Amino acid sequence: MTDQPPIPAPIAVGDILRWACRYTPEDLEIFGELSGRDAGSPLTCLPDLLVIAPLTKLGGDLNYISRRMTWTAHRVVGVDERVEAELEVTSLYDSGSAIKIAFDARIRDESGQVVLSGDSAGIILRGATTT
Amino acid sequence: MSIPSELRAGTVLTASRTLTESDIARCAKLTGDYGAHHTAGIEGRPIAQGLLTVAAAPLMRNDNGFHLLSVSLTFLAPVFADDRVTAEVRLIEVTPGVDGRLDVRLSLAVRNPDGVDVITGDGAGYFTEPDTL
């Protein structure tokens, strides 16, 4: 018996979380403001960090805190191009105060082709509330 | 192809930025990352998204036609709202690539106001039009 809250989402090894979105020119402007990048250097495609952004949305849904992250881009992604993020749970370990979790990560384009792949490992803190 | 002098191996690019609570909220809206540690925070202090923190670094935000091909990041410590971070990108190797590109290997360190590394990493990428730099 424990007074610790349960794992914040019913997740298990092998589960695949998905989220699809597209980023508009207006989103790129916001990214430029948030990053402080030089506005005189216009973007002709989606910034690399926005390509991985939907993966961070999926992590955020779990209150996931990444400790390590790698990714490899397989092609450039266009502005207004629909992409779908996939996080596949590859390991899960309840350490008591936190849940240690690892993922394989992919971004697919509309045809299903993987345009970016990688992996991440980190924790979900006990007591974190789901959004 | 000649390599611009500012892009030789050993060049260090730096940038500093204060990540405000408003930045964190806007980043959440932009990315959908509304993790509780970003919104409610820890002990009431919102923590900046890793993406927002990395975006403060030169080249990570696609400056000057730069594209990342691969990256490996380690998140060592949280960055709290209103922390000013300083990002340092060091060019490890710069070589001519295909189609006029300039291939780059780099390392990254982002530090908090105490000078402590909060994110470290390395990566590879390329400049599409290095002659215009």
Description:
- The complex is a heterodimer of chains A (131) and B (133).
- Chain A has 131 residues and is an alpha+beta fold.
- Helix content of chain A is 18%, strand content 39%.
- Chain A has three helices and five strands; from the N terminus they run βαααββββ.
- A five-stranded antiparallel β-sheet of chain A has the order 1-3-4-5-2.
- In chain A, strand 3 and strand 4 (98-108) form a beta hairpin.
- Chain A is globular, with a radius of gyration of 16 Å.
- Chain A starts with 15 loop residues before the first strand and ends in a 6-residue tail after the last strand.
- The mean pLDDT of chain B is 92.
- Chain B has helices at 21-31, 36-39, 50-54; strands at residues 12-19, 66-75, 83-96, 102-111, 117-127.
- Chain B contains three helices and five strands.
- In chain B, strands 1-3-4-5-2 form a five-stranded antiparallel β-sheet.
- In chain B, strand 4 and strand 5 form a beta hairpin.
- At the A-B interface, helix 1, helix 2, helix 3 and strand 2 of A face helix 1, helix 2, helix 3 and strand 2 of B.
- Strand 2 (64-73) of chain A pairs antiparallel with strand 2 of chain B, so a sheet runs across the interface.
At a glance:
Chain A is α+β, with helices and mostly antiparallel strands and 131 residues long. Chain A has three helices and five strands, in the order E-H-H-H-E-E-E-E. Chain B is elongated, with a radius of gyration of 16 Å.
Offer a few descriptive terms:
heterodimer; A: 131 residues; alpha+beta; 5-stranded antiparallel β-sheet; 3 helices; 18% helix; 39% strand; disordered N terminus; B: 133 residues; elongated
